Fold this protein.
Amino acid sequence: MDPMGGGGFLILSCLIYATFFVMPFLPLSTEGRVVMGTVIILVGEGAAWLGTVLVGASVVARYKRFLIPKRWFHHGEITPTDKPQEG
């Protein structure tokens, strides 16, 4: 699969979610804000999942290890319990 295309969808999903910060400044009714929030969540999640599928599970697993808080301040060897589980 094409990792650049998938990465683009992952970045796009972050940008879509960033529009939540713009919503309070738009002249929308309460119903309009609810609809816009729902659309943002659905489109953002769709873009994130599509990006994940396009980059592949191996790339996601590789970057998932950076999300382990135990490793953030530890500069040593990774123990087997710190490695992300596959499958």
Summary: The chain has a mean pLDDT of 79.
